[in-house]
What we know:
This protein is α/β, with parallel strands linked by helices. It contains 8 helices and 7 strands, in the order αββαβααβαβαβαβα. It has helices spanning 3-23, 50-56, 73-76, 80-90, 108-115, 140-147, 161-164, 191-210, and strands at 25-29, 40-44, 67-72, 93-95, 119-122, 153-159, 176-181. The chain has a 7-stranded mixed sheet with strand order 1-7-6-2-5-3-4, sandwiched between helices. It starts with a helix and ends in a 7-residue tail after the last helix. The relative contact order is 0.19.
Amino acid sequence: xxxxxxxxxxxxxxxxxxxxxxxxxxxxRHQDRLPLKGPAIVLANHNSHxxxxxxxxxxPLALIPNIQPAAAADYFLTNRLFAWFAxxxxxxxxxxxxxxxxxxxxxxxxxxxxxxxxxxxxFPEGTRGEPETLxxxxxxxxxxxxxxxxxxxxxxxxxxxxxxxxxxRWFPIxxxxxxxxxxPLPWLTEKAAFRASIKDALLNLxxxxxxxxxxPQ
Length: 217
């Protein structure tokens, strides 16, 4: 087993799981809907760097080397040490935003990961938004799914992580976190309809998470 596979398992075992399970109060709905083999795509809303850790914590450790999140190259590859940690320990697939305008396929490495049977984590809003507010769904997921229309695409809504450690924060505060996992999304040939179906699925899951959160939302 290559060294980075051990590093990734240790990262989840020693950091992601303890932080998510012990530091936060976490409720998970329909964890059995997560894919246990690839190729598959897990789609989630994005409000915090903790989102990746939370999703990793839901999977068996043995699967971690086969799961990779796509993340912005211009953020995670800013220096050699950060790039090494992001790619070798966290296991991100760097995506160059705006790459299509420069004449190359920014999703090429994501497609290769799916061809190799991996489970891909995508944040279809493209970047972290305001806590618990769903931003516009980008078109990239449609172009990716178009080439793999028969694989399962599973929506996941993460509620609470944006307040626990939102944009601009570097230390998590204890906050109740609720995670809801939906059923596989169907492929739709019309781009706008597919993006709308993703947004509808995530908003529906959000409502389910609100049912168990304490206090007014």
